[in-house]
Structures are given as C-alpha cells and as structure tokens.
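Hi support team,

I've been running sequence recovery on a batch of backbones for a student project. Most finish fine, but this one hangs at about 90% for roughly twenty minutes before it completes. I'm not sure whether the input is malformed or the queue is just slow. I've pasted the structure tokens below so you can try to reproduce it. Let me know if you need the job ID as well.

Thanks,
M.K.
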C-alpha cells in the first residue's frame, strides 16, 4: 500500500477537475432519470385510441429497462477493452437520436422499439459513467460524489414529472412533446463532455504509464503520480485479461461479489422502478382521485432523499446503510399491504416515506459496485450489476399493470414487502464493507468477511 505522504489519485486533495467531472457524469444520470421518468406522465395522457392495453403499457414501460440490460451487459466489458473516454461521449449521441425519434412514433410497438434503443444508451452510461468517475476521484470524495449520481438521477426523474405535469394539457399529441424534451439536456451534456481525458487507471492497465502520469499531473495535481498503480499492475495484483472479464466475474474469486452487486440493486430497483413508472395509476387504484398531484409530491420526497443520501453515505458504513434501509423500506409500505382500504393520508405518507428512504439507499447503486471490483474488470462488474438489476426492474415494470388489474394493489404491496425483507436478510449475510478504503484496497483480491473490522467512514 502506498505511503500516505506520496500523492496519488486516491489521496490527492480535491481540485476543480474532480467537481467538473462529477457534474458532467451527473449530467448523464440526470438524463437517465429524466428519460425513464418522463414516460410516467406520457403514459397517463396517452389518447384512448392509441391502443395502450395493460399488456402494451407494461411492455412500453419496461422497454428502456430491457435496453438498459443489454447496454450494461455488453458495453461494460467493451469499456474495459477500449477505454472509458470514447463511450463516455458516444452514448449521449445515441441518446440524442433516440430521444428525437420519439416524436415520430405512431403506435405502441414503435414506441417500444425507440424506448428500447434509449435503454441501451442508458445502459452504456450506467456501466461507464460511475466507473470512469470512480477511477478519477480521491477516496474522500468517492462516496458523496458517486452517491450524487443517484441523487441527480432522482432530480432528473422529478424534473421530467414537473415538465410533463405542465405540458399534459397540450392536446392529443402532448405525450410526444413530453417524451422528446429529453433531447434538450442530452444535447447540452454531450457537448460539455467532449474533450474529457482517459482514465489513468485504465491506461496503466494497458501499460501506458507515461500517458497516465501526464493526465494525473495535468488534471489532478502536478505533484501526484501513478507509481502506486504501476506497482500494483506489475506485481500482478491488478492484472486481468480484458477479454476474459466476463468469465472472471463468475470465477470463484469474484462470483459472490458479482451476485451480491446485482442482487442488492435488483431488490432496490424492482419495486422502485415499477411503482414510479405507474405511480398515477397506483394512486388511483389506492383511491386517490387525480393521481398526477400526489405523484408530483412523492417525487419531491424522492429527490430530497437523494440529497440526504449524499450527506450520509460517508458517515455510515456501506454495509450498515444497505441493511438498515432495506428494513425501513419494508416497514414503510407494510401498511399498504395489510390495510384493505387505507385512507389518503396513509397512502401518501407511506409512499412518500418509502420514496425518501429508497432515495437515500439508492445512492449506493453507483458507489458500491465500483468499489467491489478491480480496474481490469470494474466496468464489466458495474455493467453486470446494472444489467442484473434491470432484469428485476424490467420484469416488475412489465408485470405491474397486469398484476394490478388481476390481483389488486394489496397483493402488489405484499410482494414488495417480501422482496425488501429478502434484501435485508441477504445483505446481512453477504454484503462486504468497502467504505474508507482506496479502490485497490476495497477491490482487493482476497475476499473480506462481511463482519471484518470496518474502517472509520472518511
């Protein structure tokens, strides 16, 4: 382990570049959240002659999530082969084209196809954005700034609800104009990302030590270097074949971390994505007329929870935050599973509390997976975790309107409670602690016991 007196990426003082890069990466997550959230209002104002049955509603709602699965699964390993920088910009070009294409769709199948492509672009950003940012940040900033990705995602989701709310009265084609608004932030962020440097950690993995050192000195600190990364690479502790990344993830050494990274994300994202996609319909099913207004209120709690999550992510151990929030989320929606006809106050309170806690917990979705894997398979690992999470989210979103129509809201809420309790139990058994360590330490070759001594949060 390098001496703390030697300046490295992990222990260098924060500089403007760190925050600028965080803002550019946050911009991608704002777009991700906006693109997924904007469908919530668009589905609610679709004209009756569009042919959006429960089946097609679930299919279109899940389309971006299926695409996200494909993008995360296949582009993650590509980023470990060709680098982070090119995909960091290219994914937004795909975003922009697909966003504009929504203006021309004529039926549910066409909308499904375009939303699928949008999901692929989101999947690329899920795999590359957190990986790239984590490899540039010192460890004291990694928790809050990576956690900020989740908070900004929630603000993107909230912004789309607000925009859709005020555009919903534009006539029978309002849904198209609501959807296409995602092109605006996409164009802005894409332009700002041009010229971003390559990840020094990735360059070291390729043996390009001089380039890596020059980037660190130019962008982070003239006195900093990559000697610690070079030593780790040449000693073999960080060396890994890029072509074997997917195989490595499921090797005996890494498969438990691969499974857990995907599982905790599934347990968090499946109910959250399904509930928020069809929130107006859910509120109506729970007896609240005019589902758009309570939808806006709950999304405000969702965004506020993201900010609180940024503050607490480095003050609580990663493992403790995961376990406690799973239990709190389960309790928050339990009343909706037990009470046959909950009143408006109970409904809004339960779902707002759930939204707040989920947002706090969700900050770890972009922090934790990046800390579980070494540089040689980090993008593949983050991409795999995101892809696995989208399986549950896509299935949950597809089935939500069908199950709601067939079994009612109580059964759906009971299933949500069961999944959250399972998340708490599995986390208790499997979640390793990664807080307060360098990336090399947190992704060490040796498996660490979940109950190992935990470092003080930094």
């Amino acid at each position: 382990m390098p001496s703390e007196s030697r300046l490295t990426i992990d222990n260098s003082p924060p500089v403007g570049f760190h925050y600028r890069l965080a803002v550019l990466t946050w911009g991608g997550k704002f777009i991700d959240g906006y693109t997924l959230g904007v469908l919530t209002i668009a589905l609610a104002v679709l004209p009756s002659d569009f042919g959006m049955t429960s089946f097609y509603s679930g299919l279109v709602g899940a389309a971006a999530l299926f695409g996200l699965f494909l993008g995360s699964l296949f582009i993650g390993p590509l980023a470990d082969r060709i680098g982070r920088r090119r995909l960091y910009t290219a994914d937004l070009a795909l975003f922009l084209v697909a966003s504009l294409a929504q203006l021309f769709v004529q039926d549910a199948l066409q909308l499904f196809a375009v939303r699928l492509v949008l999901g692929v672009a989101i999947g690329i950003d899920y795999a590359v954005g957190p990986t790239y940012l984590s490899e540039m940040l010192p460890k004291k900033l990694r928790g809050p700034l990576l956690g900020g990705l989740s908070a900004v995602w929630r603000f993107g989701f909230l912004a789309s609800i607000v925009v859709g709310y005020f555009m919903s009265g534009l006539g029978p084609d309002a849904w198209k104009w609501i959807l296409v608004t995602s092109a605006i932030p996409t164009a802005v962020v894409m332009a700002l990302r041009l010229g971003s440097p390559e990840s020094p950690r990735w360059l070291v993995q390729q043996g390009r030590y001089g380039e890596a050192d020059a980037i660190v000195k130019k962008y982070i600190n003239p006195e900093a270097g990559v000697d610690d990364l070079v030593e780790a690479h040449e000693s073999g502790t960080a060396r890994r074949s890029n072509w074997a990344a997917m195989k490595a993830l499921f090797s005996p050494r890494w498969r438990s971390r691969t499974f857990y990274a995907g599982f905790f994300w599934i347990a968090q994202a499946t109910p959250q994505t399904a509930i928020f996609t069809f929130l107006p319909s859910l509120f109506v099913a729970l007896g609240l007329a005019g589902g758009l207004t309570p939808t806006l209120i709950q999304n405000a709690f969702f965004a506020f929870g993201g900010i609180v999550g940024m503050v607490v992510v480095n003050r609580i151990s990663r493992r403790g935050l995961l376990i406690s929030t799973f239990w709190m989320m389960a309790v928050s929606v339990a009343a909706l599973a037990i009470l046959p006809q909950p009143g408006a106050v109970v409904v809004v309170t339960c779902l707002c509390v759930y939204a707040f806690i989920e947002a706090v917990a969700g900050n770890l979705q972009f922090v934790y997976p990046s800390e579980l894997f070494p540089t040689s398979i980090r993008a593949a690992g983050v991409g795999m975790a995101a892809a696995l999470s989208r399986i549950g989210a896509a299935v949950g979103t597809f089935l939500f309107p069908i199950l709601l129509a067939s079994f009612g809201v109580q059964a759906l809420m009971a299933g949500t409670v069961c999944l959250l309790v399972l998340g708490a139990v599995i986390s208790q058994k499997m979640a390793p602690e990664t807080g307060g360590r360098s990336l090399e330490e947190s992704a060490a070759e040796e498996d660490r016991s979940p109950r190992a001594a935990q470092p003080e949060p930094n």
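--
Follow-up from support: It reproduced on our side and the slowdown came from queue contention, not your input. The domain at 16-442 is CATH 1.20.1250.20 (Growth Hormone; Chain: A;). No action needed from you.
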